[in-house]
Write a structure and sequence with these properties.
This protein is an alpha+beta fold. The protein is built from 5 helices and 7 strands, in the order αβαββαβββααβ. The radius of gyration is 21 Å and the shape is globular.
């Protein structure tokens, strides 16, 4: 009888706070200039996400590209929750559910680009808009522990137990979104 009790205790339970979840998906279109082209980029993001994007500004002046500091040169939108999951599924479908292994960073986040918005299912080419590509950033995190970095009193670096390695992030995306990681 005591042997059975010892066998039950030997099974380690998975900590639910250690599970990897999708934190957010950020969609970005960098136009490089203000004006009509930027308005078209905003329209593309609104069509794809059904959310109003935020305009991004340049951080410094680059005379060769005719960009001044503070000039609006792009648009981005951050999606969380179900909206993020739905958009990520559609974006991965446009990429044929394949991501290169070098698209993952040390924190386990993934970045990839889509060369044309018409690759999304149900999108048709609009000659008034033209061709726009976009960048997608997939940010993953664990369910618990990230407050350590952001709290006002006693903020500290993130411990290695909470950080997400590349391989774990790749496994999360392949299990939940049927992503094939190409090497």
């Amino acid at each position: 009888m005591p042997a059975k009790k010892a066998a039950k205790k030997a099974e380690p339970k998975a900590n639910p706070m250690q599970e990897v979840t999708l934190d957010k998906v950020v969609i970005n279109i960098g136009v490089g200039q203000a004006g009509d082209r930027l308005n078209k980029a905003v329209k593309v993001i609104e069509m794809l996400t059904k959310h109003k994007p935020v305009l991004t500004t340049s951080k410094k002046t680059v005379r060769d590209f005719n960009i001044r500091k503070g000039l609006q040169i792009g648009a981005k939108v951050t999606l969380r929750g179900e909206d993020a999951e739905d958009f990520l599924k559609r974006a991965l479908y446009a990429r044929e559910n394949k991501i290169q292994h070098y698209s993952f960073d040390k924190q386990g986040n993934a970045y990839f680009g889509i060369p044309d918005y018409t690759e999304f299912q149900g999108m048709k080419y609009d000659p008034d808009i033209g061709i726009f590509g976009l960048d997608v950033a997939v940010v993953v995190r664990r369910k618990g522990g990230y407050r350590i970095r952001r709290r006002k009193i006693g903020a500290k670096r993130l411990p290695s137990a909470i950080r997400i390695p590349k391989e774990e992030s790749m496994k999360f995306l392949s299990d939940n979104f049927q992503v094939e990681v190409l090497r």
